[in-house]
Amino acid sequence: MTRLLIQFAHPALEKSRVNRLILSMLKTLDFVTINDLYENYPDFDIDIDREQQLLLDHEYVILQHPFYWYSSPAIIKQWEDLVLEHGWAYGREGVALTGKKMMNAVTVGGRHEAYREGSFNRFTIRQFLAPFDQTANLCKMTYLPPFIISGTHRLTDEMIRHHVSRYQQFLEMLASGQFDINAVKNLENLNDLIPLNQPL
Amino acid sequence: MSRTVLIQAIIYLASGVLFVPLAKRLGLGSVLGYLLAGVAIGPAVLGLVGAEGQDIMHFAEFGVVIMLFLIGLELEPELLWKLRIPILGLGGLQVLLTALLIGGLGILAGLAWQPALALGMILSMSSTAIVLQTMNEKGLMQTSTGQSTFSVLLFQDIAVIPILALLPLLATFPVSTIAGDHGHDSLVGGLPGWLRMLVVLAAVLAVVFLGRVVMRPVFQIIARTGLREVFIATALLLVVGVALLMETVGLSPALGSFVAGVVLANSEYKHELESDIDPFKGLLLGLFFISVGASINFDLILSNPGLIAAIVGGMMLAKATILAILGKRFKLSTDQNLTFALALCQVGEFAFVLLSFALQNGILPAELVSLMTAAVAISMALTPLAFLLNEKVLLPRIGTKETPRKQADHIDEHHPVIIAGFGRFGNIVGRFLRANKIGTTVLDFDSDRVDVLRKIGLKVYYGDASRYDLLRSAGAEHAKLIIIALGSPEKSKALVETVQKHFPHLKILVRAYDRDDAYDFMESGVEHIYRETIDTSLRLGVDAMKLLGMRAYHSQRAARLFLKHDDKALTELAAVRHDRKQYFSTARRRIQELEQLIGSDEANRWLKEVDEGWDPDSLREEANRGMFIRPENGTTGPVNA
């Protein structure tokens, strides 16, 4: 199995229901490396060497975070600013990440239907994630569509468990190479590839 | 109570109240203040007290007994063990060699060997009170001089006991009548020698037994009553009882109370005993020094000014010489050694005790005691001058140079930062700034450290940082910041004043020892105040929270907010401090403040702030009530679309 690097970012995990469950699920998987950013760098002093080595050691980078203000929590930005150095990740000589895959896995409070043209939030989640898409592109990586767990404000504990196990199933398929990257990379999201077992 | 007793009390108290603050103001210390008070009310000046001064002196000698009890109480076995080499080596040799040298000089001056040796031992004592006070004020206690000085003084304190025991063996005169009470009361006087030894041994064992076994439950019961004055009475009863017991078997009461103190040093009531008995010691010793002052025979001095000068000069020179030789043997650098020798070359307050003891036991003749008492007092008064001579004349010439030696091609650039004090606090700041290529000039008062720092290429000025001229030569006019990291709060305050007065353009960053210090700096208008321990304590708190499984980022935020909150509380308390200062003692005020602080820690908004931001419960609630919500903190939408 290919190892997956999970860049986990939640500034107030003690208040989160979904991400807490996701984190404990991730800890049971032997093919993922969890890098808990807020826990490792509470003062935002990102260890650049360590982070770059982690990137070199993995084929897949998954940014796992809640969807705050149509984007990620602050530490992911700090991580990008410091770790994706010119001459290493991008630029004429920046080829360290060439061919790797990057994606976002987000938890969203609002309903899925609110994220489309003409609706409350006017754009799709994938559209909001365009800066990540282009960041991956600039670093010669392939950007994959997001895995989204939405409507979290209204999820019951049972529903959360179901979503988390779908996410687990997705990660297992990703790591064992069951997706045709070229076929899926233009989808709106990847969560729709995993069937819902029950009406939500 | 007869009127005369009251009038006597008024004379003594008033003289003390008048002269001691005066002497302190002049930098002479309280002991000299009491002596001056005695001189003033004595026959030489006002003649308010006469022959009864002797009786009062006997009463006041009880202060010496209490003092030795307290010294015993203070002796911590671990400290003694840690300092055993300097205490026994440096201290022991100092007392021994000084006693022999001065004794030898005494014989040359025509004394018999017994009084000469007694005088030698008496004059080997230095003034603990004056020296430790001065060293503390100058921030020298942590230097190698400070440590050596402390060791020597500690040995002298202990040496008083064997000296008190040895002195009677040197008696050559018939015991004078006023001193007769020592001999008469002894119950064992008529017994044969071996039996006397047994009785003495039994008495000492009784004191040990009393301290180890009996007193603990007694203090426990008394403490439970909650009546402080009864506790004080018990403590005094113990000391008086032991003193009486010792006198009865013919031993020195001071020795007995010293043993009792040592026995109780490990007791849990140690600190209570200390603080309860201390005022009695202070008052009685004050009385003792007043009576010493009153008993100085000025006719004798005025008729022999040359003799007195020779005695004072001779004995200080002899002491300083021995101290300097020993300092060199014990590897003190030249500077440290000079300070060490001059700091301890006066004769101290113990000498008054020993002199009056020697007079009563017929060891020294009255005129000699008078002469020596005056000489000792003068040598004590000269101590501040000796320090001054050392700082202004000797050290600048012989010792570490104040300003760093300039190399020929060295262009004197101006550093933007001056760091005053390169001890355990300043050195971290200094290293940090240097590592970031920020030019720093260091001012330090520890010549050993200065030498080392200069060797590794730092620009270091040596001396008292609060001096205007030193600051100027260190480049204060061109610097931007001054970082005050001195160990002594008094020195820091003095430096703040100097800087504010002469270099107002310098931004001051100051290290504060605790909240009280911080208040003082706030009052003098310093903006950047750094309490020594708060950051470290909070860092520890953060780690504690993390080890308990809390998230790192949450813990860190909590600590930062706590710090902000605490700083705010500090400012608020500083504003009301003056009203309180007048009503409460420091300790009482601290406890009150702590109570208030903890109260506000729990009640205040800051705790809520830690929890604010990111996924507030209110957002979830609103979503579940099916209402439209603003896209705040992300994650939103028309939830009931």
UniProtKB/TrEMBL annotation, chain A:
InterPro entries in the record: Flavodoxin_fold (IPR003680), Flavoprotein-like_sf (IPR029039), KefG/KefF (IPR046980)
Start and end residues of each Flavodoxin-like fold domain: 3-170
A Pfam family matched in the record: Flavodoxin_2
Keyword field contains Ribonucleoprotein: no
Alphabetic keyword roster: Oxidoreductase
Keyword Oxidoreductase attached: yes
Full protein name: NAD(P)H-dependent oxidoreductase
TrEMBL record, chain B:
Keywords recorded for this protein, A-Z: Antiport, Ion transport, Membrane, Potassium, Potassium transport, Transmembrane, Transmembrane helix, Transport
Stored Pfam families: Na_H_Exchanger, TrkA_N
Record flagged with keyword Transmembrane helix: yes
Domain of life: Bacteria
Transmembrane domains' residue ranges: 6-24, 31-50, 56-75, 87-109, 115-132, 152-173, 193-214, 226-245, 281-301, 307-326, 338-359, 371-389
Keyword hit for Cell wall biogenesis/degradation: no
Major location (coarse): membrane
InterPro entries: Cation/H_exchanger_TM, K/H_exchanger, Na+/solute_symporter_sf, NAD(P)-bd_dom_sf, RCK_N
Protein family: Belongs to the monovalent cation:proton antiporter 2 (CPA2) transporter (TC 2.A.37) family.
NCBIfam families xref list: 2a37
Protein name from the UniProt record: Monovalent cation:proton antiporter-2 (CPA2) family protein
